[in-house]
Amino acid sequence: MTTIDLSRETFGATVQGDGIVLVDFWAAWCGPCRSFAPVFEAASDTHSDIVFAKVDTEAEAELSSAHRIASIPTLMVIRDGVLVYKQPGALPAPQLELLITKARELDMDDVRRQIVAAEAEA
């Protein structure tokens, strides 16, 4: 599966709902972003059940700002509409595969309970 480009208009609809979505925030001038792109694309070919999406931070500055993207590349993992991972930095293929495995293994009922507990404490 190829990656899809996200915009402010399409981001919400893409990340809501069931399943896993990986979002790569990037820019054309960014060397690490260019290094990570083939790794991300290869993973999208391997994992056809996952949505792989990219946000061009130059074209979508408002979207990047809304998600507090301070450095690129930044990878977000959203599972069943819940943000479960967000970190800057280009991952090598084995680490991206491990991250995907961990996202698949998450007990989302437990994740939601933890979110509710954290919000209650705040």
From TrEMBL:
Residue positions of the active site: 30, 33
Residues annotated as site: Deprotonates C-terminal active site Cys: 24
Lineage per the UniProt record: Bacteria, Bacillati, Actinomycetota, Actinomycetes, Micrococcales
Residue ranges occupied by any Thioredoxin domain in the UniProt entry: 1-105
Pfam families, alphabetized: Thioredoxin (PF00085)
Top-level taxon of the source organism: Bacteria
The keyword Electron transport is assigned to this record: yes
Protein family per UniProt: Belongs to the thioredoxin family.
Provenance organism: Microbacterium aurantiacum
UniProt-listed InterPro entries: Thioredoxin (IPR005746), Thioredoxin-like_sf (IPR036249), Thioredoxin_CS (IPR017937), Thioredoxin_domain (IPR013766)
Record-annotated site: Contributes to redox potential value: 31-32
GO CC annotation: cytosol
Recorded GO MF terms: protein-disulfide reductase activity
Bridged cysteine pairs (disulfide): 30-33
UniProt KW keywords: Disulfide bond, Electron transport, Redox-active center, Transport
Protein name as catalogued: Thioredoxin
